[in-house]
Amino acid sequence: MPKLKFFDVKAKESFETDKFTKFERKVKGGTIVFAQTKSPLTGIKATRIIGRKK
User: How confident is the model at residue 54 (pLDDT cuts 50, 70, 90)?
Assistant: First the structure.
């Protein structure tokens, strides 16, 4: 998997990783794809939007 940039809100810093899981959420007008990983800075879950599926 390619490296993605995530933001740790607790540490207020961003980090890059290629170890993440993808999941989808259905919303009005389509489906949004997210990536989620554990922050190496504080250990909390960091989530970002990858894109929209139509």
Answer: confident
CA 5 to chain centre: 8
Arithmetic mean of pLDDT, 14-40 = 96
User: CB atoms < 10 A from the CB of 6, how many?
Assistant: 22
Q: Which residue has the tokens 């990858």?
A: 50
Pick left, alpha or beta for residue 40 (phi over 0 → left; psi -120 to 50 → alpha; otherwise beta). alpha
Per-residue pLDDT, averaged over 13-40, amounts to 96
Q: CA-CA distance, 27 to 41, in Å (whole number)?
A: 31
